[in-house]
Amino acid sequence: MRQTYWLAVVLGLALCSGSAAIAADSGWRALIHPEHLSRVEDPRARALAVLDHIGAQEYGYDEVKMVRELLAAETMVRPAERLLADWRCRSIQVNRLGIFSYPNFRCRIKRVEGEWDFRKLSG
């Protein structure tokens, strides 16, 4: 259970902090559509803003508090190699229509020919 929570936090924060690593490479800006820039530069703020608009009538409203807690979790710098393992993962998607939480599944993060590889092993 603990690995599931931390993987969700680590992957979420990797996405949030990944923009800093991406920002070091100015070449990506030539490829991205301007309207998508905010999704890369500040995904945490974007997710929090979407949560502000999820009302009681939207799907998954009862999970707003949990998602806010995940997004508010303190970040911890760890070596990326610590992600290389088998994990129990979970996908939580947030948009203006609601919060869509999917069941846990098994996954693996490894390096293949120097590149990061994420594999869904079940579910």
What do you see in this structure?
With 123 residues, the protein is of the alpha+beta class. The protein has one domain (2-120). Helix content is 37%, strand content 22%. The protein contains four helices and five strands, in the order ααααβββββ. It has helices at 2-23, 37-41, 43-52, 64-72, and strands spanning 85-89, 92-95, 98-101, 105-112, 115-120. It has a three-stranded antiparallel β-sheet. The protein is globular and about 45 Å long. The two termini are 17 Å apart.
Q: Main sheet?
A: 3 strands, antiparallel
How much of the sequence lies in strands comes to 15-25%
Provide the helix percentage. 25-40%
Rg over alpha carbons: 16 Å
Number of domains: 1
- Helix tally equals 4
Q: What is the end-to-end distance?
A: 17 Å
Low-confidence stretches: 1-11, 13-24
Beta strand count: 5
Write the layout of secondary structure elements.
Blueprint: H1 2-23, H2 37-41, H3 43-52, H4 64-72, E1 85-89, E2 92-95, E3 98-101, E4 105-112, E5 115-120
Helix pairs in contact: 3-4
Jot down its keywords.
123 residues, 5 strands, alpha+beta, 4 helices
Q: Could you give a quick summary of the protein structure above?
A:
The chain has helices at 2-23, 37-41, 43-52, 64-72, and strands at residues 85-89, 92-95, 98-101, 105-112, 115-120. The protein has four helices and five strands, in the order ααααβββββ. It is α+β, with helices and mostly antiparallel strands and 123 residues long.
